[in-house]
Specification:
With about 170 residues, the chain is an all-alpha fold.
Length: about 170
């Protein structure tokens, strides 16, 4: 599915307003789903003013029956990683696009791809990665190691198809 660029300020505001209106009608437990919907709908966020994070946190804290989210300006420098250790509730769900299997295969080879896939321990997450990246993997495979090898084979096939189409 192709994305759509929304650069007009009014259209961006309308997009976020629709998502936030949906959240206003729900309780605070829906916030992770709204965050996921926004993350899927937005390609990248460029903050022109770091004060927006502080302003947002103050506005959300002032809302009745709501808890202020962990919104803080980004930290940089050597202490950035230690500045904020995510809690269990803040951890993000598996991202099937964290890396491209085909690109990793092309640039670093099958061993590097397999090593990267070894960081994913769940068969369900491996299946989601294969489906999201359109790798031909049998959905009936449940063994994690077999699934990893099938993903490598699927990426190899996609790469071969690309090369054949380019010739």
């Amino acid at each position: 599915m192709a994305g759509a660029a929304i650069r007009d300020r009014n259209r961006k505001r309308d997009f976020f307003q629709r998502v936030l209106d949906a959240g206003a009608r729900a309780d605070a437990s829906v916030a992770p789903e709204l965050a996921e919907a926004l993350a899927r709908g937005v390609n990248q966020i460029w903050l022109w003013d770091d004060a927006i994070a502080d302003s947002l946190a103050a506005k959300v804290a002032a809302l009745p029956n709501r808890h202020a989210p962990d919104i803080a300006p980004a930290t940089t420098g050597p202490d950035a990683a230690a500045a904020h250790e995510p809690s269990a509730t803040e951890r993000v769900a598996f991202d099937p696009f964290a890396f491209s299997a085909v690109v990793l295969l092309k640039r670093q080879g099958a061993k590097a791809l397999l090593k990267q896939l070894e960081t994913i321990e769940s068969a369900a997450d491996l299946q989601r990665l294969a489906e999201a990246q359109h790798l031909g993997v049998d959905r009936d495979i449940t063994d994690v190691e077999t699934l990893r090898r099938a993903i490598v084979a699927g990426a190899e096939q996609r790469l071969a198809d690309r090369r054949a189409a380019a010739s």
